[in-house]
Structures are given as structure tokens and as C-alpha cells.
Amino acid sequence: MASEIPLDIEEKVEVTHVESKSDIDGIDWTHYGDDPDTIEAYKTIMSWSPEERAQQEKRLVRKLDVIVMAMAVLMYILNYLDRNSIAQARVSGLTESTHITPNQYSLVNGIFYILAQTPANMILSKSRPSVFLPVSMCAWALISTCTAATKSFGTLLAVRFILGFAEAPFFPGAAYWLTCWYTKAEIGRRYAIYVGGICISSAFAGLISAGIISNLDGKQGIAGWQWIFIIEGTITVAVAIFVSFFIPDYPQTARRFKPIERVLARMRIDSDGGPSDIGGEPTMFQGFILAVKDYRTWCLGTLQLCITNMIGFNFFYPTLMGLSQGMGYKNKITILLLSAPPYMVALLFSFCMGVSADITRKRVLHWEISFAVTAVALILLIALAKIDSPGGRYASTYILAMGSFAAYSVAYPWVGSLMPRPMTKRASAIGIANSLSNVGAFLSSYVFYAELGPTYRTSWCIVLGMTAYSAAMVWFLGWQNKKRNAELDVIEEQYRTGEIDSVTLATMPVDAQLAARTGWRMSN
């Protein structure tokens, strides 16, 4: 039975499977290493009963949450705080000091990072996150601080362009790093928390900026908007140095974990997505080519592009609140304070959606619910655009934040689920998807172009169209996954009954090998 659109057709590999005493479910688990500590850890784990192993896995996951998850969220909060600081600075005097027009602001806000994402993730798949991520953090913080020294459109544009290359590795890199530690059943709620860093930073950005403007504006001859970049950049550098001492690398090399924890961490991921020796591990370039040739990479990429446009209002939210036909608020402090609550509501909703998606394993359903909530908010904003109802428009942004950020949080778990192996392909696919996501961020600067204000009715219509496309694309991918899973059912049964032997299986696509040997299926 063949799929109309073949999956992983370029990933066929020749692997001779050798049965051994350590063989479990058709997979040779000796690739964990042959040093005495690893061998002893492996033997200990194999001696556990299912109940003991489940208990030990829970302990390990708790440790991962305290170390891996906490570090990822902390870094992402600061990442988005730096990215979002320009929106706060705009209502605090940035445009007046640098003499830029609203359209120039759109360009400054949009000329962030696009091309650096994919090569950064390719490098990360072969390097150490404990070095790569903190160095990236320090670089973007120092460059962001330099924004305070800009005096014109040209210098501001140059700093933002360079800042994009410094920040590029972080989000897709950390997203890929999390998939190396958590299983499909765990990653949804973790991604919801991780992406919730956007909501937390967006909320606190307003509160922090309000405090800075009210207390430091004009002090030492420095404007309030300049203090925003200086203080937030300094904090980020300090945190980058701090986290560099605690970030673990990958399960096979994490020095802060005991040998038994490292082996158990690898066994969990291998059981979930298949061991890394299935299909071999191609080079960075080979993994990139595999990702480019897989149509799902581009489906997910265009999906991310549209979803990023759905949350694109985030960079213009303080400005929208100050427009007479937006929310109509005039006081800078009021605007900054009122911009916080919608993000906190969005954080709670996104987390609930992530937990529910993990429990039910129905990610497509939760994605479609998120799109439906977003569509309701956009229809309200379109309908209220020419009505004198600032309260109604403000309430609609709560709903918009809930739906759009929930959709964003569901997106990345699907990449790891659809492309579990090879790791270099998964890293490249996440990088490509995030590059297209940032094309969406660039386009959102023009979706909310000055000429489309002050109601931005046309902007909301464009975002509604992208929401509809996203819903259709998710349905299409879910339908394709169901078809492929049916084919994998047949392959697994044929392998179990001996109709397909190990030699023949080794020539089949990686997803077929995973299905036959581990029971792996694509997530829906």
C-alpha cells in the first residue's frame, strides 16, 4: 500500500541488523557505550520491574523539569524581553529621539533574523548547548544594549539587523534541545510552558518598562527608552553567565547527570522515537538536504509563517492601545500596564491546551481549537474596527492572545513527532520552519503598516486569512499522517509475522523501520 505523497523517500539506508543478547524489540541497544559505568547502569535498568522503571523515569523527568525546562524558560523569557523592548521603547520616546517615521519603524521591527536560523540549528546538532546557547545570549544582550546609543534611522536599522543574527540560534536551538530530552507524551505541555515565556516576557515587559519610565526617565541625561535597553541587556548578560554553569548538553554527554540517569534518558527517547543507530546519523549537510526534500518541512514552515503573523500584533500592541481609534489610551504608564493582562491569560490557556494535547494525544484537534478561538477574536476586531468601543476591542485582544499563542505552542512538538530521526534532519527542519516563521515576523511589520491604521481593519482581515490557511494545512497534515500510519500498521504486522525480514526492513524509509521495531507512529 503506497502513500500518494511518499514520506522520507530519500532516507532509505542500508543497515544490517545483528541480533544480540542485548537486543530488545529488534534494536541493538549496545550503542549506549562500553565503559564500565555505562554497562553497569544499563544492567541495573534492565533489572528493574516495569513499576520500578516508571518510578525512576518520573524522578528523572522531575530533575529535567528543574534543570532543563527551567533554564530553557528563563532564557526564552529574556530572549523575548529583548526582542519586545522596541515595542515598549516606541511608546516611551524612541521614535522622537531617532526621528523615524511609522513606516521606518515597521522596517526596523521587521528586519530581524531569517537566514541565520537554519545554519545555527545545524551547528547546534553537532555542538554543545551549554556553550552555544549562553554565548548566543551574551551576544544578543550586548548588541541590544547598543540600541540605547542609536540616534538615527540608519544606526537603529543596523543594530537591529546585527541583533537578528545574534538572536537567531536561540529559539529553534532550544526547541531542538528540548526534543532531545522529552518524549512525545511529555513535550506538548513543556513547549506550552516554553512558548509561555513569550507571554511572561510580554507581560513583564510592560510592567518593567512602566517602572523604568516612571523612575529613570531623564536620569543621568539618559531617556527612559534608552534605560529600557540598558537595564534589560545587562540583566540578560548576567543570566547568560549564570545559566552556562547549569545547562546540560545531550543525554549521552550531560556531565551533571549520573551514568544511570544518562542511560535512562537515552533509553526513554530511543523507545519513543527509535534509537539513533536506526538509519545512521548523517552529517549536518546531509541532514539539511533530507529536511529540504521532505515536503512536510515546507508545510510546517509555511504554517509557522502564518502563526507568527497571528501573534504579530504583539510588537505593535502598545501602539495600538494608544491610537484614538484603537483602544484610545494616552498615558504611557497606563498603556504599558494594561498591555500585560492579556498575555497572562494567554499563558494559562496555552498551558491548559498543551497539557490536554499531551493527555489526549490529539494535537490536530487542539490546534484547530486554537485557530477557532483566534478566528473569533479577529472577527470581533474586524466588526468593532469602526465602532466606538475601545473596551470591546481591548477585550477582543485577550481572546486573540489566547488563541494565537496556544496555536504557537502546539506547533513545535509536531516537528519532533513527524521527524524523530535522523537528529540532524530534525534540527534542520526546525531551523527551516523557524526561518519561515521569522519571514512571517517580517511580513507582520507590513501587515500592520502605518497606512493601514488607525483601525487596522485590513490587517485583521489578512491575519484572519492566514488563520484559515493554517487550519487547512493542519487538517491536510493530519490526514496525511493517518494515511501513513495505516501503512505503518501493515509494515509492522508484516515484520512481526516474518513477511519482511531485517535485511529488507533496513532498506525501507526510516519511519517504516521505527514502526516495525518500536511501534512508533506519527502524532495526530
From TrEMBL:
Gene Ontology molecular functions: transmembrane transporter activity
Top-level taxonomic group: Eukaryota
Entry-linked PROSITE patterns: MFS
Topological type in the membrane: Multi-pass membrane protein
Pfam family for this entry, one: MFS_1
Residue ranges annotated for the Major facilitator superfamily (MFS) profile domain, each copy included: 51-482
Recorded coiled-coil stretches: none
Keyword terms: Membrane, Transmembrane, Transmembrane helix, Transport
GO cellular component: membrane
Locations listed in the record: Membrane
Membrane-spanning ranges: 64-81, 131-150, 156-179, 191-213, 225-247, 298-317, 333-352, 364-385, 397-415, 427-449, 455-477
Protein name in UniProt: Major facilitator superfamily (MFS) profile domain-containing protein
Annotated organism of origin: Tremella mesenterica (Jelly fungus)
